[in-house]
Amino acid sequence: MDHQLKNISKSGIAEAIAKVELYRYLNEPEEAESICGDILAIEPDHQQALRLLGLSITDQFTGAVTDRYGEVEKIFQSLKDRYQHLYCMGLLCERRAKAQLRAGGLPHVLLPLFEEAMRYFGEAEKVRPPGNDDAILRWNRCVRLLQKYPEIQLEKEYIPFDLSDSPPR
């Protein structure tokens, strides 16, 4: 039996994109990721497929070291539209932070991730298409998460370590 991948037709890309979105809604990100791979096999620079591929991978984040942050960052770096690039990078940081929050991540790891997400969302807001408030909505979600988990922000209020207080060697 032949176990090689088959190429979809270029005329089937729109329908394949719709299936990617459906599988993401159904919380089946691995299926969505697979279909993105099929689209990118015949059109490697397809921007919507690249964006959806990155999002499908972030849908699989668990907060483990095996999460594919670097792979998604590279995908989102390849997005040509400045808004999409900034917005998706913000999503990457936010989803990474939320996955690590669910996994019991420590505040000193979480706070910089949320702040980086908010920085990207702030930049995306400046170049957003008219009527598109997605970056603002994501910014607000990050703020609400930081308000819900105040222990994340306690990390900012650290007591500086004074070397003169250290025990002699």
User: What is the beta-strand fraction?
Assistant: under 5%
Q: How is the biggest beta sheet arranged?
A: none
Unreliable residue runs: 157-161
Give the strand tally.
0
pLDDT averaged residue by residue: 91
Shape type: globular
Strand-helix topology:
Layout (H helix, E strand, L loop, with lengths): L12 H13 L3 H14 L4 H12 L10 H9 L4 H21 L4 H20 L7 H15 L1 H5 L15
Helix pairs in contact: 1-2, 1-3, 2-3, 3-4, 3-5, 4-5, 5-6, 5-7, 6-7
List keywords for this structure.
mainly alpha, globular, 2 domains, single chain, 169 residues
Structure description:
With 169 residues, the chain is mainly α. It has helices at 13-25, 29-42, 47-58, 69-77, 82-102, 107-126, 134-148, 150-154. The model is unreliable at 157-161 (pLDDT under 50).
Question: Briefly, what is this?
Answer:
64% of the residues lie in helices and 0% in strands. The chain is mainly alpha-helical and 169 residues long.
